[in-house]
Amino acid sequence: MVKEAKNLEGGIDAENLKLKKWEKRLNDIRNQREYLALNREVEAYRSGQKREAEERITRAHQTPQRARAKLADIKTRQTEIEEKREAETVRVNAELARASSSRR
User: Fold this and answer.
1) How many structural domains compose the chain?
2) Domain extent for 94
3) What is the DSSP annotation of 42-92?
4) What CA–CA distances, in Å, run from 61 to 85, 98, 101?
5) What was the pLDDT predicted at 81?
6) In whole angstroms, what is the distance from residue 39 CA to residue 102 CA?
7) Which position among 34, 46, 47, 63 has the lowest Cβ density within 10 Å, counted as fewest Cβ atoms?
8) Is-above-0.85 flag for pTM?
């Protein structure tokens, strides 16, 4: 998952390059109408892409944490099951011993 996060961070860098290119184009625009249209496009893209990439990075970093938490939960349940199994084995062995001694 760390690799995925690094890939996403690389994607953010690529998106930042696109934004710089668009911002450079802003300087080449001749009238206010073109400028405003491109500026709105850049701002919308910037906020949407950045937010989405940050969310994906956060999820990628959280995935190992969730997996560790789930593993801990599974180990706890496994321990509980093993304890129950051991208690049941002791009970069954005692029952068998009683049944065996009552036959004699």
Assistant:
1) 1
2) 2-103
3) HHHHHHHHHHHHHHHHHHHHHHHHHHHHHHHHHHHHHHHHHHHHHHHHHHH
4) 37, 57, 61
5) 93
6) 93
7) 47
8) no
Residue type, 8: L
* C-alpha to C-alpha distance for 104 and 94, rounded to whole angstroms: 16
CB contact at 8 A, 62 and 81: no
Position 104 pLDDT exceeds 70: no
Q: Each residue of 23-65: pLDDT tens digit?
A: 777 777 778 887 788 778 778 777 777 777 778 778 777 777 8
Burial class (CB in 10 A: 0-12, 13-18, 19+), 4: middle
One-letter amino acid for residue 67 of the chain: A
Cα separation, 16 vs 10, in Å, equals 10
Q: Which residue type sits at 36? A: L
